[in-house]
UniProtKB/TrEMBL annotation:
InterPro entries: Integral_membrane_YCCS_YHJK (IPR010020), Memb_transporter_dom (IPR049453), YccS_N (IPR032692). Belongs to the YccS/YhfK family. It is found in: Cell membrane. Keywords: Cell membrane, Membrane, Transmembrane, Transmembrane helix. Signal peptide: none annotated. It is a multi-pass membrane protein. It comes from Limnobaculum zhutongyuii. Its main location: membrane. The lineage of its organism: Bacteria, Pseudomonadati, Pseudomonadota, Gammaproteobacteria, Enterobacterales. This is Uncharacterized protein.
Length: 693
């Protein structure tokens, strides 16, 4: 029972964050200097925003860099204020200065908002504490945070990766069960495919996260790490066999009417799903897997296959279900894998050179955030607020990458703050002793961190009450901050929303065409691997995963674009249909990868003809996406003479290829129609795809 409590992801995270915040407060409470303890507890928030709680092979190096940036940000802001530089210009200068970190790497890019939060905390202390004391406060706080996190992950080894792996197995279970639970209702892709696409998106997002975690492990050859990497490779093989589809609804319906296939397939799918969830718990709670066998379930499915040899559905399900059962029983990958490399960080001077270009996305993001903070500081000065730190902090907290994420965070933040202020006002009218108030703050902090990753809005209520308690203890003026805090939160949310709308917005609608072009490129590379009959199984697995990730990027962009304002809905509807056919194509590529490993049956001449045909179609689709001009490719589907076909090739590899060709032809038609339906303003007036970079 204790394993389910202590290893539970939310409990473990809440316990870690609560201890790292409250231990300094406890120490200085014993030293009768509670105010310093509360000030020191601000630093872990900066470290968490900066990603310094991420296990990394260069953990202490990143900690030193992060701590140095915090000290520089604090000292520089205070000196700029001493030199009478207006606060709006101070915030703009700091943002543009630290924005170069995003050009180095995404992980280093998290240090920029952390350094800005440090500057905002410094603003609240400027004039009340000496410059050197504030700087030392951030240096000591960063050192304490790094020491605590290092010891925590020594105690709970591999916990972040175990949590991600457990979540991956659980999402695979949900995806697999949902895919086969409505077997006879897959005749309408418009209804059956969207929920499956959402499931697959979650799976691919977790796989990408685990890749990043693997490359941050200091010693991949350690036995503990090797076991986790092996479990990840098993999950990759499971994802390959789970995502394949036959896409023959007529044959499915025929088999269901002639036999008990639907009940048998559902029972097999349920058994596999339950086993995946058990393995997810075993990984998370450090348990050894129990023996597993599906002989009875698979024998019933094999019987259906023998009774209906002319129907490909039974053979298809039996083959993939048996491979999945083998993976679940042996807990060893079926194929060799090459772990996908991640982008290395740029050297500082090269990053600085790229950052100074007007085409730099990091520069645009920094300019957007800097101008928003400058506007917030300017409004604060206009309202005679010498330290509008709450407006600036609200801007930093609610500003996210993308319109939809920012809008949702603003809703949660504003509602949570409003309810928290009302609850805090009622609580502050009741007079407690200081010790009881500290205990209530401890409980609220733990409960807020317990739910913050799943329900941010409710967690904000607890954080707001805790902030009011802190002000009440330090200055005995918590009641005086109720209305100003609410007004500052509303102002900060409005500014963040306005900047996401008007200051260099990164609309996903505008990126759909580029993402579609990149996805077609990865499809072409993977087809070359398959048709060239490569003997490098690891490379084949690598390109297959790139195909799935490229499609996931496209699908994610489409989901976000559907939430963005001001765009032509007919264009998005056409692109949704394009993405649907892209999903079908990816599933066929997954199935072809398995066949290419196990039972490749195409003769070289026929394989080359199919490859040439697929490349012509893919390149034609790319041209339609790239150039808005007249097209003379009215007959783009070359005829491939397949010659003699045996039964196996006709029902496996060639069937998948023929459907891929059909989907590519449809995608070409949709590309022509969708581009005509595009919005006709702003960057959409550019005709060529390469101009969008």
């Amino acid at each position: 029972m204790w394993r389910r409590v202590i290893y539970h992801p939310e409990v473990n995270y809440a316990l870690r964050q609560t201890l790292v915040l409250c231990l300094p407060v406890l120490l200085f409470w014993l030293l009768d200097d509670l105010a310093t303890g509360f000030l020191l507890s601000l630093v872990p928030a900066c470290c968490s925003i900066g990603g310094l709680d991420t296990p990394h092979k260069h953990f202490f190096k990143r900690l030193a860099i992060g701590g140095s940036l915090f000290v520089i940000s604090s000292v520089l802001l205070q000196f700029l204020l001493l030199w009478s530089v207006p606060l709006p210009f101070c915030m703009l200068i700091l943002t543009l200065l630290f924005g170069v970190t995003a050009e180095i790497s995404p992980l280093y890019g998290r240090l920029m908002p952390a350094a800005l939060v440090t500057a905002i905390f410094t603003l609240s202390m400027a004039g009340n504490l000496p410059i050197w004391r504030v700087a030392i406060l951030f240096a000591i706080g960063t050192f304490w945070y790094g020491l605590f996190i290092h010891l925590w992950f020594r105690l709970w080894q591999e916990q972040p990766m175990r949590e991600s792996l457990s979540l991956l197995f659980r999402q695979l279970a949900y995806y697999f069960e949902e895919k086969y639970s409505l077997l006879t209702q897959h005749t309408d892709p418009e209804k059956a495919l969207p929920p499956l696409l959402l499931r697959q998106q979650k799976v691919m997002d977790i796989i990408t996260l685990i890749y990043q975690q693997i490359y941050m492990i200091p010693n991949l050859k350690h036995p503990r790490h090797r076991r986790l990497i092996q479990a990840f490779q098993v999950a990759l093989d499971l994802q390959e066999h789970i995502t394949v589809s036959l896409h023959q609804p007529a044959e499915v319906q025929k088999l269901v009417e002639q036999s008990q296939a639907e009940a048998i397939i559902r029972h097999n799918a349920k058994s596999i799903s339950q086993r995946l969830q058990v393995l997810a718990d075993d990984i998370l709670y450090h348990r050894r897997p129990t023996p597993f066998s599906m002989e009875t379930e698979l024998s019933a499915l094999e019987k259906i296959t023998r009774q209906h040899p002319d129907n490909p559905v039974g053979a298809f399900c039996y083959y993939h279900f048996s491979r999945i059962a083998r993976l679940l029983s042996r807990q060893k990958p079926l194929y060799n894998h090459t772990l996908m490399p991640i982008q290395n960080r740029l050297p500082f001077w090269q990053a600085l050179k790229n950052y100074c270009s007007l085409k730099s996305a990091a520069l645009r993001n920094a300019a957007r955030l800097g101008l928003t903070l400058a506007a917030g500081a300017g409004i604060g000065l206009t309202l005679n607020l010498p330290k509008p730190y709450w407006i600036l902090m609200t801007i930093m907290v609610v500003s996210q990458n993308g319109y939809n994420a920012t809008r949702i965070r603003i809703q949660h933040r504003s509602l949570g703050t409003m309810i928290g202020i009302l609850a805090g006002a009622a609580i502050l009218h009741l007079y407690y002793s200081q010790n009881l108030m500290l205990i209530l703050m401890l409980v609220l902090t733990f409960c807020s961190y317990l739910i913050v990753r799943k329900n941010y809005g409710i967690a904000v209520i607890g954080f707001t009450i805790t902030a009011l308690y802190t002000l009440q203890i330090i200055s005995n003026s918590g009641m005086n901050y109720l209305l100003p805090r609410l007004i500052d939160t509303v102002i900060g949310c409005m500014l963040a929303f306005a900047s996401s709308l008007w200051l260099w917005p990164q609309w996903q609608s505008a990126l759909l065409r580029k993402n579609a072009h990149n996805a077609l490129e990865t499809y072409q590379q993977h087809l070359r691997q398959i048709f060239n009959r490569t003997n490098d199984i690891a490379e084949l697995a690598y390109t297959r995963m790139k195909v799935n990730q490229a499609h996931n990027t496209l699908f994610t962009a489409l989901n976000q674009a559907m939430q963005e304002p001001g765009f032509n809905t007919r264009y998005l509807a056409d692109m949704r249909l394009w993405v649907t056919h892209s999903q079908f194509l990816v599933e066929h590529l997954n199935a072809m990868t398995t066949i290419a490993r196990d039972q490749y049956v195409l003769v070289p001449a026929l394989a080359q003809n199919y490859l040439n045909t697929c490349e012509i179609l893919i390149q034609t689709c790319q041209q339609r996406l790239e150039y808005d001009g007249p097209s003379g490719d009215t007959s783009i589907l070359p005829i491939v003479e397949s010659g003699d076909k045996d039964e196996l090739s006709e029902t496996s590899m060639e069937k998948h290829i023929e459907r891929i060709l059909a989907h590519l032809t449809t995608m070409h038609t949709i590309s022509s129609l969708a581009w005509q339906q595009r919005p006709h303003h702003g960057m959409w007036l550019k005709r060529r795809l390469r101009e969008e970079g």
